[in-house]
Amino acid sequence: MHLRPFPRCELASVAMILVLALGHGLAADQASAAAEGDPTRGAAAFGVCAACHSLKPGQQLTGPSLAAIWQRRAASVEGFHRYSDALKRSTLVWDERTLDAWLKNPIQLIPGNEMVFPGIPVEQERRNLIAFLRGVSEGRIKPPAAGAMGGGTRKLSDAQPDELVTKITYCGDGYRVTTASGKTRTLWEFNLRFKTDSSPEGPREGHPVLLAASMRGDRAFVIFARPEEISTTVRRAC
């Protein structure tokens, strides 16, 4: 039996159809990957969150830890007690849809919440960040070290003698702060701030820490483990 060969035009048409089909398939795969988000790029995008949020379970910063955010009800992270009333009243559960709306415009999603964040306007950036957060929550992605994301915290219990406060006196409008190294600094009262840090990264009880708060050296923080230590450490004396 003699088989009639395909005309060249028909072969070209078949080849073109195959090329177009492969192209459409590749485009569909790329569109699907984009829609799902790129967690590697999402890790880089998390840099805008790292100043206020940790990915370490139980480590609360300005905002709550995001280590297990996926499928968690809003305002429910254990150990974080500073949620706004608006967020606590919400019934949101964090998933791809709600996180996308929150990251786009948190005030629009939940009016009255206290998150100081303008939002991420680019949809693909939000998808990448959501993919990263989901992967971390589900244990599929190991988060970068805190320092690599720009949000590392220092253990104040490791403070050096020049930073360990042994005495604070107040006279007129100034404080004199003496450290374990024997040095004393005098600071205008408006330029010295008292803070507390009860976290594992904070100072040891009874061992407040003096830290510089400006490049010029005229401002400083004294950080205590508990607020009760402030009144027992500061003495009025000239």
Task: Provide a descriptive summary of the structure in words.
By secondary structure, the chain is of the alpha/beta class. It has two domains: 39-149, Cytochrome c-like domain (Cytochrome Bc1 Complex, Chain D, domain 2), CATH 1.10.760.10; 156-236, no CATH class. It contains seven helices and seven strands, in the order H-H-H-H-H-H-E-E-E-E-E-E-H-E. It has helices at 8-36, 39-45, 85-89, 96-104, 106-109, 123-137, 228-233, and strands at 165-171, 174-179, 184-188, 192-196, 209-212, 220-224, 234-236. It has a four-stranded mixed beta sheet. Strands 4-6-5 form a three-stranded mixed beta sheet, with no helix packed on it. 22% of the residues are buried. Residues 17-21, 24-34 and 147-152 have low confidence and may be disordered.
